[in-house]
Amino acid sequence: MKEIVVISGKGGTGKTSITASFSVLGGKDLIVADCDVDAADMHLLLEPDFSSDEDFYSGELAEIDQAGCIQCGKCAEVCRFDAIPVVDGTYVVDPLSCEGCGYCARVCPENVITNHVNLVGNLYISNIKTGTKMVHAKLGIGNENSGKLVAQVKNEAKSLAEKENKDAILVDGSPGVGCPVVSSLSGATFVVLVTEPTVSGLHDLIRVHELVKKFKIKSGCIINKADINPDQVGKIKEFLEKEDIILVTEIPYDENFTKAMTLGKTIVEHDDKLGGLIKEAWKNIVKLA
Amino acid sequence: MKIAIASGKGGTGKTTLSTNLAALLAEKEQVVLVDLDVEEPNSGLFISGELKHTEKKYKMIPEWDPTHCNLCGICQEVCNFNAVLKMGKNIMVFPELCHGCYACSELCPKNSLPMKEREMGELKAFKKGNLSFVESKLVIGEEQAVPLIKQTIDYVDSNFSEDTIKLYDSPPGTSCPVIEATKHTDFVILITETTPFGFHDLKLAVETIRELGKDFGVVINRYGIGDDSVETYCREEGIPVIGRIPNDRAVAEIYSKGELLYPRLPFIKKELEKIAAHVADIRKELSV
Amino acid sequence: MKIAFTTKGTDWDSPMDPRFGRTEYFFVYDEETEKVETFDNRAIEGEAHGAGPKTSQKLAELGAEVLITGNGPGGNAAAVLNQINVKVYTGAGEMTVREAYEAWKNGDLN
Q1: Which residue, of A76, A94, A119, is where some domain finishes?
Q2: pLDDT in tens, B48-101
Q3: Does some domain include residue A53?
């Protein structure tokens, strides 16, 4: 099964808009997975019905059973995250500061601290307007995306794809260079790097490509807003050539790109010129993956 | 006075607003701009100045000392992050996964995992006229942004006076790094776009900032490209819209070169002045 | 020589799992004794972070000298595999275990 993962490093490059367009083009042949859980936006263009909804747990949080607590303060003493302040004369865990290391529970003489799994958000499986299914998630406040959450979203997507005999899964990948993006890339058969010709765009492209290289995955690049800075485009192309990355397409700066989004549509549904470029790109990607 | 500039989503113009507002305010008084987006600090690409200070920032992680180790394995048992593993006759430590909780080190019966300093990033301070600029950058592969954000805030607290205006360019999102970057400030500016993505992420950011109990206002970037949903939402929620930066191709072009906008675009300067006036009002209220 | 495969099942016709850290199973084939041993790694799903090192530890316990997988292991996992002298071959993510073994013998994996 093909697993096409779209990532960008930097925010605001158009990654999610492009991925949503690919979902429309791939239609029923795909299962879609949104692993950009920190800014899960793709559902806004794909009209999901949230038909299946389950709690998602990741990491741990300490909890003090106040009934048995003797207020010795050992827990607060060993905590390096200042997560056990004294409130109204009793020791309590501040869930926003607790890292779930479990050290406090290990030193509590009365054994009244337990680490319990932390509810971080919801995981959804939805029917979407392209006639297929999408797996997506929503995080609660102050909760972080994790390798585990991304793996779970992708696993759900893969098992759906197997069950329904789909050719591929399409993944909107996580930003940054940490654990979630590692988990997004793990298992990919092709990576699409979306960038823009700005100083920050190139800077972040280089950082995220370091990871792709480590995984030895084939990759292609889409340069969005390609006509705003020819010098910077030149630099990106030099980099692509040096690293053996295929240039999939260049999309010019065009307000229709954003206009489509404001209408709740993907680009391919709204604008023929931009849509044509993305169609061409998708054809290439399917061949390469 | 401390102001955080934040957004629920990346790429909405956080860095553009931070750098331009800082430079404009610095035409009149002492300002320090702090880039807390330590994973991808980009403000420095727009601000030049004389490098005044550099320091390495460290986190404490355990280092195995085999001398007295009896390979009992307690260290691996107490680590909740898979950062310490017993591999045959060796103990391996994975610094990027370590949260620095000290459990393995302090619970080791043989003191075989003393905590040692490990470089997690570098802080740099620049100055040009009234404008100081502080940025920290996480070493690639390092996963914990929060400790470096904390240390950077401490550096600014101890090196700049109370009455200096401090602007903090925060990391995107609604998770721990954003909370760390905004929870100590007096006022938060949320920047968004009038697109469905921007609007959706703004609502999440508003929830987060409200949970922290912070006073905040909204700046709409690329104003005019979408509909009035952001504007309506803010009105209904009683959130002040303190600035509207028009959508214009020239903005994208100047940004792409790493240059400041307002010296070249008068309409941007006008909007920034409105935001500056709002900031001045907040400051007056705080001093009462 | 003991060869470990990252797999989605427990027999020669099972598909490979292209992932290392979060692989579902290890399928270990001992070329000398021609014996097969499998390990169910699915509990790794519960780990929020650091799946790579944890799975590497399992692999070390299984005593494999060669690892055949799909994509390369991430940085932390690579560090452990290097430490325990396991040789890693990638590019078998789309095959069955049998095909992967043949491909490795033919020198088609790198």
Answers
A1: A119
A2: 899 999 999 999 999 999 999 999 999 999 999 889 999 888 999 988 788 899
A3: no
pLDDT tier for residue B141 given thresholds of 50, 70 and 90: low
d(CA A202, CA A220): 15
- Report percent pLDDT > 90 for chain C: 64
Tokens 């490509």 found at: A209
B143 touches chain C (CB under 8 A): yes
Q: In the 3-class helix/strand/coil scheme, how is C6-52 assigned residue by residue?
A: EECCCCCCCEECCCCCCCCEEEEEECCCCEEEEEECHHHHHCCCCHH
Average pLDDT rounded to a whole number, residues B3-21: 90
Local structure of C58: helix, strand or coil: helix
**Average pLDDT, stretch A100-127?**
94
Mutation pick from A57, A148, A185 vs chain C, by most beta carbons of C within 10 Å, is: A148
A257 membership: H or E segment, kind and range? helix A255-262
* C-alpha pair distances (Å), A194 with each of A18, A191, A264, A268: 9, 10, 21, 17
Q: How many CB pairs under 8 A join B and C?
A: 41
Write the CATH number of the domain with boundaries C2-105.
3.30.420.130
Task: Give the closest residue to B123 by CA, choosing from B156, B167, B85.
Answer: B156
Tell whether ipTM is more than 0.85. no
Residue span of the structural domain in which A82 resides = 58-119
Q: Does A9 share its domain with A83?
A: no
